[in-house]
Write a structure and sequence with these properties.
Strand content: over 45%
CATH class: Mainly Beta
CATH superfamily: Macroglobulin (MG2) domain
Order of helices and strands: HEEEEEEEEE
CATH architecture: Sandwich
Number of strands: 9
Structural class: mainly beta
Helix content: 10-25%
Strand order of the largest sheet: 3-9-8-5-6
Largest sheet: 5 strands, mixed
Number of domains: 1
Shape: globular
Distance between the termini: 77 Å
Radius of gyration: 22 Å
Length: 135
């Protein structure tokens, strides 16, 4: 019985080295660590995060921050007003971590419910941020 367990142990080590040569840590998984709607950006940080934005602010931002970026890749900020796609922004992420943002100008006709979907090239939704534009 001891002999068969030793063989299994050796097989496991060989198999593990084949999957992960040199025993290096596995690549991190692309992870969204922060996503916010805000009224301004300063020094690449979201300022005045809010779910209710006054049209008088003039502009609204969607901020997103990722870790575990394996290579330069694109993500998308899809802006919807009343469930109708209004704009799609293609944003590049650079390894190993990266923050990016998109924005839209606000007009009186933009009052009402909005959402921004943060998605990758395959269509995976990382977050859906909902907010309202008011007087």
């Amino acid at each position: 019985m001891f002999r068969s367990m030793a063989k299994v142990g050796i097989s496991f080590v060989i198999f593990s080295l084949f999957i992960n040569p040199l025993g290096l840590a596995q690549e991190e998984k692309l992870t969204l660590v922060k996503a916010e709607i805000c009224e301004d950006l300063r020094q690449n940080q979201c300022v005045f995060p809010s779910r209710i934005v006054s049209v008088s602010v003039g502009k609204v931002y969607c901020y997103s921050s990722f870790i575990g970026i394996p290579k330069i890749i694109n993500i998308y900020h899809k802006w919807y007003q009343r469930d109708q796609l209004i704009a799609t922004f293609v944003l590049k992420l650079r390894p190993p971590s990266y923050a990016t943002a998109s924005s839209i100008q606000l007009r009186d006709s933009d009052k009402g419910p909005w959402k921004v979907e943060i998605v990758d090239q395959a269509g995976r939704v990382y977050s859906t941020l909902r907010f309202s534009v008011v007087d």
